[in-house]
């Protein structure tokens, strides 16, 4: 039978991981907001929209890619539409469906934000790691992601 609790080493590693997530995402969010007026969620949406080959993406597919619930995505996109970063249009063949696309303003915003964001990620995250540690981190993350796909929720 598996122990119901994490051992000391697992507990320390898990708590450190949670603290890294909390501090890293808070720092990235503050910097994006201060430098570019974007939230980290805005940035995530804009990146997702620039990574697709089609000009428009079904909202449903964007929600799956971001792993956001429908209501969260809808509310966030409404704010982004109001700011001119994205456009939303109804789907002609599905009354409940909608498409979203990045606007020229959204494209300009992501192009302006990306270099500084990448520099900050490199500075606070990667610059303190060796190439070996980066490869190990990647392998660890891939293993966990694979398990998330195969272990039942």
Automatic annotation (TrEMBL):
GO terms for biological process: response to stress. Coiled coil: none annotated. It comes from the Bacteria. Transmembrane segments: none annotated. SUPFAM superfamilies: Winged helix' DNA-binding domain. It holds the Pfam family MarR_2. InterPro entries: HTH_MarR-typ, MarR/SlyA-like, WH-like_DNA-bd_sf, WH_DNA-bd_sf. GO terms for molecular function: DNA-binding transcription factor activity. Gene3D superfamilies: Winged helix-like DNA-binding domain superfamily/Winged helix DNA-binding domain. Residues 10-146 form the HTH marR-type domain. PANTHER family: MARR FAMILY REGULATORY PROTEIN, TRANSCRIPTIONAL REGULATOR, MARR FAMILY. This is Winged helix-turn-helix transcriptional regulator. It comes from Nocardioides antri.
């Amino acid at each position: 039978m598996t122990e119901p609790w994490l051992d000391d080493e697992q507990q320390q590693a898990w708590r450190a991981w949670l603290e890294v997530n909390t501090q890293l995402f808070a720092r990235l969010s503050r910097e994006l907001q201060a430098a570019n007026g974007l939230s980290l969620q805005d940035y995530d949406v804009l990146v997702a929209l620039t990574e697709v080959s089609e000009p428009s993406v079904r909202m449903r597919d964007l929600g799956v890619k971001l792993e956001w619930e429908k209501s969260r995505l809808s509310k966030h996109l409404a704010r982004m539409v109001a700011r001119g970063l994205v456009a939303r249009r109804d789907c002609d063949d599905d009354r409940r469906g909608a498409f979203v696309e990045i606007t020229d303003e959204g494209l300009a915003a992501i192009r302006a934000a990306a270099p500084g964001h990448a520099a900050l990620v490199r500075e606070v995250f990667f610059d303190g790691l060796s190439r070996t540690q980066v490869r190990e981190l990647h392998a660890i993350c891939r293993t966990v992601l694979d398990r998330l796909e195969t272990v039942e929720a």
